[in-house]
Design a protein that fits this description.
single chain, 42 residues, mainly alpha, 74% helix, elongated
């Protein structure tokens, strides 16, 4: 994977996290775990 691809994936995961937080989903633990969970929920 290229850095550009990883950056795009991370940006998308952060966007999803933002939407989920607006909907009242609470994230716990490390940011990395939250990013992984956000990507898995997609």
């Amino acid at each position: 994977m290229t850095e550009q691809f990883l950056s795009r994936e991370e940006a998308e995961a952060r966007r999803i996290m933002g939407i989920q937080q607006e909907l009242g989903i609470r994230f716990h633990g490390s940011e990395d775990a939250d990013l992984k969970r956000a990507m898995d929920l997609e």
